[in-house]
Design brief:
By secondary structure, the protein is of the alpha/beta class. 41% of the residues lie in helices and 17% in strands. The protein has 2 domains: 162 residues, Rossmann fold (3-Layer(aba) Sandwich); 169 residues, Rossmann fold (3-Layer(aba) Sandwich). The strands form 2 sheets. The chain has a 7-stranded parallel sheet, with helices on both faces. Strands 10-9-8-11-12-13 form a 6-stranded parallel sheet, sandwiched between helices. The two termini are 22 Å apart.
Amino acid sequence: MNTPLHIRHVNLARGFRGGERQTVLLIQALAALGLKQSLVCRRDSWIPAELENVAVSIIHADHQLAGHFNGGRADLVHAHEAKAVHWAYVHQRLRSTPYLLTRRVPQPVKDKFFNRRTYAKARCTVAISSVIETHLCQRNWGETARIPSALAHLPANAEQVDALKARFAHRFVVGHVGALVDRHKGQRLLIDAARQLHDSHPELLFLFLGEGEDEAALKRESADLDNVVWEGFKKNVGDYLEAMDLFAFPSRNEGLGSILLDVMDHDVPIVAAAVDGIPDIVIDDDSGVLVPGEDSTALAQAIAELASDAARRERLASGAKRRLGAFTPAAMASAYLTLYRRLLTR
């Protein structure tokens, strides 16, 4: 009987954001394919709690030099974020275990000696979007592949959804979900759009979910707007998506924007900035509406137009739904498994 392939995932992030959610989704989907898996993470990581029903061994490492001689030997290490890349490189030097890495951010990798070294030693670098793949190919530090992120099938509780819809009755809810970090997610652009539409479209309600370093400043800057609601961090995002009429995503930079896949999964039409990896998901006037980045006026105009056109919103939501087959956890896991096997037989 063949011994199952053993993949060691590494994610040393402190918090739990999109990259950590994708790590969880991949481990869950690969478990369904029968792989043996282990995970290297910080002791305070949220990831193990998300995997409590999955057969995966946990190796604690609070920094890049820890955990290298725990958990036996794996066939291949998969690094999911920047600190994990350093861990994988050290592990390869110590135990000769090959590794690959996934690049999730759209900024080009800085041309530094250690980056050149760690990327060149990887069997492959995986980009989650076309813009990241282009940047990696321009560096030409090694083999590159593209495997997009996956939707999470966020659950929704009917009672909670009904309560939210009752709370927002008679309002057209324009939702946003993301870390409150304006230099990344562009919440100030959406606040400005809310300000522009305040008098002309009093039915619009702008609902923000998330927390982050700019939370206090953003609340202060929008304190005079009664059409803006700050809901904070919520675990039941699926409930809120069901209560939204439109989703606005004015990011200033975005590797892919996997939350958009979950929005599509809940049949919510999208207006988003045409930056970085977002156009890989949102096809203008087919699976959403794209507006120029850094343009709150264009954002406000698109929101107003969609709010008054229910037929178009329904068409966009249907178009988005048709695209989701390429972005499921099963599709992502299948693509990675094919890549794992190819790299190990090279």
